[in-house]
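Posting this for the archive.
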Amino acid sequence: IGQRLAQALENHYRVKLIERFPEAADRLSAVLNSTIVLRGDAADEDLLHEENIDHTDVYCAVTNDDQVNILSAMLAKRMGARKVMAIVNRGAYVDLVQSGTIDIAISPQQATIGTVLAHVRRGDVVQVHSLRRGAVEAIEAIAHGDRKTSKVVGRTVDEINLPPDTT
């Protein structure tokens, strides 16, 4: 997941990827073009500090280990990352985690890499809530501009052309 996410983002953003296993880090650095691949533990406070986590716009924890994802995302947020996201495999944890320090918790059963990318690319998404076991998603976002430059600013909800099946 980390490799695919980095490949999708690296041509548009500065991406750093943390990989614990040296062989995997070497392989990733060979296939990624402009992503900086760091060898280390994503929950290492010194590493995050060294890599200026406090200047990071979005931190994504996308390992296969829920505990690593949750703890490293919480640590990154506490150390100053603007927005943190974590993949959480256990559905029961998603709502618990998302209501706390972690801005966006993504359940693989409910999401694809496209969903992760959509959240990363929308820099002004404040909060995403998964409701009804993933059947519904509520998104809180900041809209910029004025009535002339925006399709939503200065308009009532019934004036906005929303996608079908949107409430």
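The longest helix spans residues 66-78. The mean pLDDT is 84.
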